[in-house]
Amino acid sequence: MRILHVDDHEDFGDLLTLWLGELGHACTYAATVGRARELLATAGPFEVVLTDVTLPDGTGADVVEAVRASVSRRARCVAVTGRADVDASRYDHVLVKPVGLDDVASLLGT
After folding, report:
1. How far apart are the C-alpha atoms of 56 and 48, rounded to whole Å?
2. Phi/psi of residue 85, each to 5°?
3. Per-position DSSP letters for 48-68, written without gaps between them
């Protein structure tokens, strides 16, 4: 599965990208909304987009908006956040940090 992971915490971004690779997925990482937009335009389509809600240059909702306007418009958008008060209506699913490999694998069906 082709996955875009957007999170400004690089340690978590690197770890989740590694985990997803071990599960057999092709994961691309972005630390900002701007970089996510670039990747959506140049490296898509993606089947799943995992995004943090709070990013240095915007929000997870901005990422979802960019996804819906791209070739990845049918991608499943998942919030991966430490915030429990997220507006879940903007996302197809919400995972609350701390997130484990089992949580992500279950969500992806792997």
Report:
1. 21
2. -100, 25
3. EEEE-SEETTEEHHHHHHHHH
